[in-house]
Amino acid sequence: MSAMNDWAGRYRAPLYILRRLLSAIPTLLAVLTVIFFAIRTLPGDPALAILGDTATDAAIAGLREKLGLNLPVWRQYLNFLTGLLHGDLGTSLVYGRGVLSELLRVLPYTLALTMASILIGTLIGVPLGIISALHRNRFIDYVTRVLSLLGFSFPVFYAGIMLILMFSVWLPWFPVISSTSGSFGDAVHGLVLPAVAGSLGLIAMITRASRSSLLEVMGDDYIRTARAKGLPEKTVLYRHALRNALIPVVTVIGLYFALIIGNSVLIETVFTRPGLGSLIIGSLDNRDYPMVQGLLVAYAAIVIVVNLLTDLTYSVIDPRIGQS
Amino acid sequence: MTDTVLQVRNLTTSFYIGGEWHPAVRGVSFDLARDETLAIVGESGCGKSVTVMSIMRLLPEAGSRIEGEILLDGVPIGTDPEAMQKLRGDRMAMIFQEPMTALNPVLRVGFQVAEPLMQHRGLSREAAMEEAVRLLELVGIPSAKSRAREYPHQFSGGMRQRVMIAMALACEPEVLFADEPTTALDVTIQAQVLGLLEDLRHDKGMGLLLITHSMGVVAAVADRVAVMYAGAIVETGPVDKIFAGPVHPYTEGLLRSIPRPDRDAQDIYSIPGAVPSIDKMPKGCRFAPRCPLKINRCETVDPVLVEITPGHFAACLVRAGEPS
Q1: Over chain B, what is the mean pLDDT?
Q2: Residues of chain B contacting residue A318, judged by C-beta atoms under 8 Å apart
Q3: What's domain B4-91+174-314's superfamily in CATH?
């Protein structure tokens, strides 16, 4: 092996990560620009909205000055970007505190919710997909396919309400409102129903994706090779087929992450949970523009980071990725 | 013959197509001795691959039916799936046509070679990996120790086929099936791989069943040849006899269609017509519609193999006649 190859081999993963990180920068910049101008096109004057109809013209003009709204738009845009570079997302008009600190306070709740949903979705969806594929066109496959269709078509807020009704009201197993204080155990206990509500669609999606992916992989040449080696069918499935079949499933989870995080807004509202979702709903109600803007930036950043993580997961599963 | 390792008797493999069973392989019988290369030659779709896949029991169970008798070392095999799984990769091994897709892309090459050893010999992972490196050296892979840790996409086509050979040889099988092992390779690599197969066959005293559509490959490496047409053997015998005096008009056609440097490309002979499809087989001799020697009787009587000289058989009413 040549020295060049050796070098490329050793630094393959870090180089790949670096390249992906760099390529995320233009994406993030584009998203920030869209968010900035979208907020500016919202109807109404923020200063007027904050102070109310009874405010004097002088007070409104003063606030506009304070918020920097009198500056030309390009200056506001530059200020917005330089602020971001310094980690300054502005100050909440309602809480009077930094947007960033408020955001970081509730972020763990949303992350816990989405991660728990993905975990449940994967732990149930992948085995269901395998069972379905192995019993292709038999009874259990039909049942799984009908259930996953149901999972798809169930609106997440409705699922949430039904879960509360069943497991909090009729059967008092879980709290109606997720607790924000208390022990770790309490937090997990409160997380169960919201996470289940968030995982239903995901289970359906992962089941479908892993079923079709496994069926496809089982027809591949290397599966025939594995059988020709005399490996038992279980080894063929778990060692040779499954890892290849999971590559498209990771894609699906990555692609639908934006949907999952969108659903978290509904779930946090239904379960009265703190999080980015309930914060953005509250901020929209209160016309807390800096907060809304900061939250949108946060959402965009999360989705970009998750896409990055998805790509990195590929390079762990599939040695061909990150080569060229 | 005492050194016969594989006997195939009246092998018939049918597929369920459009509500009916259609034989893709019809009454195929042959013997394979230790340290012998038998080539099965024929056009695409003549049933040569299906023959080998039937012996290995690698066809999907649904929609296929295998009849006839197969003896390995005089012992009937093939009825018990579990016993077959133990034979595959141990006493009978197989090399496939497409080295690009026949190796699992997400597993290290060394591990894939080591797998049959762990499965059939009960070797520990470490011991099997050591043996895999030795096998990779045996098939001529340079710096085998470091290359064993690489993935298939880091190998060229020829090198991958060497890996496939190493994998097939791992447990020193008595019979090696090679299904078009050089078709997907560059011409310069083809000769190397064929030479390697021949050497290893001789060193290990294996019976090698080589499937090919190339008369050139047959001439280069085979001891005996069986010419298949539309699912049946139409002529079989020692290579020199058949090349010197082909009896069946189909064999004759195949030999005449080998490109030769002393003739122009447009003068290359091609057999008129095409192989009949599996659900539209003619009655009588299946080659009759394409045969220049056809007589009326060919359209009603299916010819059987008749011995012409010792060891040389052909199935042609016109040239070989009918058994008395």
Answers
A1: 90
A2: 105-106
A3: P-loop containing nucleotide triphosphate hydrolases (3.40.50.300)
